[in-house]
Design a protein that fits this description.
Layout lengths: L3 E2 L2 E2 L2 H13 L2 H17 L11 E4 L4 H7 L3 H13 L3 E2 L1 E3 L11 H7 L4 E3 L6 E9 L3 H12 L4 E9 L9
Helix pairs in contact: 1-2, 2-4, 5-6
Family: Belongs to the ComF/GntX family.
Organism: Halotalea alkalilenta
Protein name: Phosphoribosyltransferase domain-containing protein
């Protein structure tokens, strides 16, 4: 993977919005997350960062999770983000259930994601991966490898938020 961006930090209000959207189906929270991320990217002069990519590819959710939630959260967010930035959207498939990655360390996440993604069509040369939250980057790395195996020349990742390495303590 050539680079990654995450304009928001997954803590406090952002974490609350992600949980409201992802686990409670609060689509207003999802729209707000997309708008906040776009605002940060624009204000940080990174609005054109994604322009060098041919397509946006959402990390596909586990089918079990989609059934539990009633929607694919990453695809939902990616469709809105792609529309706002004028980028075509490509879809991948998750070949097997991996279960929740929460609580797993980097190596366990990597093992859990070995050969888990596939692409139905050949992707264009430059792909921008998309997800809601990046923790270790293992999911992005696994999907990037799938893209490189399919012939991509450049793959980067964009998450709306990134988990902090450590949270400051409040006094």
């Amino acid at each position: 993977m050539s680079s990654s961006r995450a304009p928001l930090v997954f803590c406090d209000e952002i974490a609350w919005l992600v949980r409201r959207f992802k686990f409670e189906g609060d689509f207003r929270a999802g729209r707000l997350l997309v708008e906040l991320a776009l605002t940060v990217l624009i204000e940080s002069d990174e609005r054109d960062w994604g322009a060098r990519f041919d397509v946006l590819l959402a990390v596909p959710s586990d089918a079990v999770r989609v059934r539990e939630r009633g929607f694919d959260h990453a695809d939902w967010l990616a469709r809105r983000f792609a529309r706002r930035v004028g980028m075509p959207l490509l879809r991948a498939r998750r070949l097997r259930a991996t279960g929740s990655q929460r609580g797993l360390g980097r190596r366990a996440r990597q093992r859990n994601l070995t050969e888990v993604f596939s692409l139905a069509i050949s992707p264009p040369p430059r792909v921008l991966l998309f997800d809601d939250v990046m923790t270790t980057g293992a999911t992005f790395e696994a999907l990037a490898q799938c893209c490189f195996d399919a012939g991509c020349l450049e793959v980067a990742a964009l998450a709306l938020a990134r988990t902090p390495r450590s949270l400051p303590t409040r006094r």
